Amino acid sequence: MSQFLVKEGVKNQIRKGEKLVTTHCCYCGMQCGMHIRVDEKTNKVMGVEPRYDWVLTRGKMCPKGVTAYQTIDHPDRIKTPLIKKNGKFVEATWDEALDLIERKYKEIQGTYGKDALAVYGGVSMTNEKCYLVGKYARVGLGTRYIDYNGRYCMSSAAGGFNKTLGIDRGSSLPWTELEHSDCFFMAGSNTAECHPTSIQWFWKAKDKGAKLIVADPRETATARVADVHLDLLPGTDSALANGIMHLLIKHDYVDHEYVQERCNNFEELKEMTAKFTPEYTSGITGVAVEKIIKAAHIFGKSPRSVVMFARGAEQQTAGVDNVSLYTSMALLRGQIGKFASGVATFTGQGNGQGGREHGQKADLLPGYRKLTDPKAVEYISGVWGIKPEEMPQPGVSAYEMFHLMEAKTIRGLHVICSNPVVSSPNINYVQEQLENLDFLVVNDFFLSETAELADVVLPATTWAEDEGTTTNTEGRIIHIRKVVEPIGESKPDWEIMSLIAERLGKGQHFQYNEPREIFDELRLASKGGKADYYGVTYEKIDEQDGVFWPAPALDHQGTPSMFKEKFETPDGKANLAVCDYRGPAEVQSKEYPLWLTTGRVVFHYLSGNQTRRVDFLKEQCPEPFVEMHPELASQYQIENGERVKLTTPRGDMIAPVKITKAIRKDTMFVPYHWGKKLAVNQLTSPALDPISRMPEFKVCAVKLEKLSK
Ligand SMILES: Nc1nc2c(c(=O)[nH]1)N[C@H]1C(S)=C(S)[C@@H](COP(=O)(O)OP(=O)(O)OC[C@H]3O[C@@H](n4cnc5c(=O)[nH]c(N)nc54)[C@H](O)[C@@H]3O)O[C@H]1N2
Ligand SMILES: Nc1nc2c(c(=O)[nH]1)N[C@H]1C(S)=C(S)[C@@H](COP(=O)(O)OP(=O)(O)OC[C@H]3O[C@@H](n4cnc5c(=O)[nH]c(N)nc54)[C@H](O)[C@@H]3O)O[C@H]1N2
Ligand code: SF4
Ligand SMILES: [Mo]
């Protein structure tokens, strides 16, 4: 299998008449290395070439990445600001749009106070832009209400890592080490479809005998090649992890020296896991006893194992518990902080790692500083040139902002880089709240379903029209290069936020000529914080194939491997998780007797606002479908391709059935990349994890109906 890895030293060829601009893909956290081909004469984008010598992805790209260039000058691009007049969008000048925004923002804040305006950010943007969104909300608008789409993505991983390891860096090791690992325990990750270019590393390890254990209710392409597929009931990861730990203790696979020296809570964990015998665990998870035992022995015997998880385990009301428990499995084995071993979450969006570090979250300031920490407030106020008492208080999480819209506490909203009316749970409610706002502004480059509801749409640039940095799934900070000038009147988000701040009399805090200046401010703001970028420069990024944070000083090369000596908790020890099993918020009933889970397909990206516009991707997967087991289908007398209705107390949808044995008999799966009547989020549950405030996208109880013909 290892022939799939491109040999080191292979370089891309440059053809006559074109130049190659080196950058990274705009979509997922793999941030595959790519070159964009530009015609030297016309300066137009012609296509892409995978970058063979990029250290992590080695010339691999997926169907989304190789077609991403088609979005840059796509005919649907929004080229001017749009103002809604009598229910229809009319093209406007920047001055007209900014005049209106200034007037409405001042009116709303003048009447109802500063916090009546809110900001909803996103992490498909560079670090520079993500950093500025936090500052724009708190300094530009002076509001406490800011949160972002990463709340739906990375927040349970963050919660679990902070609890156990004291810091939220998604991977404890560089992924180039994965080829030397002996065992991968993957929970709730559809790796082959969602992080396709990472597969080469697992294959390479497998060639050398590494084992693969996959926990997923579906037999995904990755589960199919696993040594053990733990086909658990959605929402039962905490029982599974406790069950595996029960066996690690029982068969003495515990690294006692490591646990003694480096971990707290072992006795409590032992007590908690005592009841999670294979039989008890099987009773909750539905996974066969033999499979649980086999997985525990494989994992327990592997000298170098990596525990990895993604949204399957995280998007639950027990998401933080699940992350903490899975991380504890690695800790019991003494694996975190060692070569080719450790723990990692698969970062979702391109800058899902960086974008969560710089203060887009309701309670965080740059560098993972806490808004509730007076010292942090003082430091960041100094960097931003405001008085500490001017710093707004913590706000609420993304979904909870919609409740505040209902209560009319929030009356105006600025969405920057997200499509929440497709991607939130319970979107019929979300749409109502967005429609009830006094004023909605959206920055996007395509008219998303959320932008359609806006009063003003501001044309943002794509990733190829601006420079900056992102932080990939490993924690490696990389360079995104500007390829072409912004199309039409579009502007990068940092410029848009600066223009609005200027109109609100805060221009002195937003004087930037280029992203590099924002990065320098970010470096300073993060200095001394947990996610310390101070020692990272654009030059160092280019010289070193990226820089892993923390890099606290200019002469520091970065930190690819974390936790070699200590954890980032106050006492330097990791906290083993002591959590009982908590089931999903929703229970099955006579009316809603089946489970529904949601997720992705390889051809589309998130709310689909980008990939639904690329012909090839649209053709490959034109609409959502309901994946179900043949036995369930025959019970309802449903045939492959037949359209069925799914209903929950929140909404319903109709979609064709895809019959497959690769799913549990009691569970259906629907991908969520479409809006309006095709959106599965009409059905999903808005129940939140108590710590991370992550919605339970992965489990709800549902009714299945055959439609009369
Ligand atoms: N093609 C593609 N790739 C993407 C994206 C995309 O939209 N499309 N988005 C990116 C982003 S932002 C993200 S967050 C990642 C997401 O990456 P993943 O988390 O890998 O993707 P999902 O499809 O959301 O869910 C993963 C798996 O979880 C399983 N699952 C469902 N319920 C449970 C459960 O209760 N427990 C367990 N253990 N598993 C469960 C599902 O069957 C599914 O196979 O992908 C990134 N990459
Ligand atoms: N049912 C269900 N729902 C889910 C999930 C699930 O698994 N199941 N997963 C959740 C997860 S993990 C995530 S990450 C969210 C994502 O949810 P969203 O944030 O809604 O996802 P996107 O489609 O990426 O929305 C980004 C929008 O910003 C635009 N955009 C891209 N780059 C830029 C930029 O640089 N600037 C500006 N201004 N705009 C830009 C795009 O065109 C797009 O309209 O969905 C969540 N929702
Ligand atoms: S979507 Fe992800 S895996 Fe696919 S090319 Fe882009 S970064 Fe790579
Ligand atoms: Mo995500």
UniProtKB/TrEMBL annotation:
<dbReference type="InterPro" id="IPR006655">
    <property type="entry name" value="Mopterin_OxRdtase_prok_CS"/>
</dbReference>
<feature type="domain" description="4Fe-4S Mo/W bis-MGD-type">
    <location>
        <begin position="18"/>
        <end position="76"/>
    </location>
</feature>
<dbReference type="InterPro" id="IPR006657">
    <property type="entry name" value="MoPterin_dinucl-bd_dom"/>
</dbReference>
<keyword id="KW-0408">Iron</keyword>
<dbReference type="InterPro" id="IPR006963">
    <property type="entry name" value="Mopterin_OxRdtase_4Fe-4S_dom"/>
</dbReference>
<dbReference type="GO" id="GO:0008863">
    <property type="term" value="F:formate dehydrogenase (NAD+) activity"/>
</dbReference>
<dbReference type="Pfam" id="PF04879">
    <property type="entry name" value="Molybdop_Fe4S4"/>
</dbReference>
<dbReference type="InterPro" id="IPR050123">
    <property type="entry name" value="Prok_molybdopt-oxidoreductase"/>
</dbReference>
<dbReference type="InterPro" id="IPR006656">
    <property type="entry name" value="Mopterin_OxRdtase"/>
</dbReference>
<dbReference type="Pfam" id="PF00384">
    <property type="entry name" value="Molybdopterin"/>
</dbReference>
<keyword id="KW-0004">4Fe-4S</keyword>
<dbReference type="InterPro" id="IPR027467">
    <property type="entry name" value="MopterinOxRdtase_cofactor_BS"/>
</dbReference>
<dbReference type="InterPro" id="IPR009010">
    <property type="entry name" value="Asp_de-COase-like_dom_sf"/>
</dbReference>
<keyword id="KW-0479">Metal-binding</keyword>
<dbReference type="InterPro" id="IPR006478">
    <property type="entry name" value="Formate_DH_asu"/>
</dbReference>
<dbReference type="Pfam" id="PF01568">
    <property type="entry name" value="Molydop_binding"/>
</dbReference>
<protein>
    <submittedName>
        <fullName>Formate dehydrogenase subunit alpha</fullName>
        <ecNumber>1.17.1.9</ecNumber>
    </submittedName>
</protein>
<keyword id="KW-0411">Iron-sulfur</keyword>
<keyword id="KW-0560">Oxidoreductase</keyword>
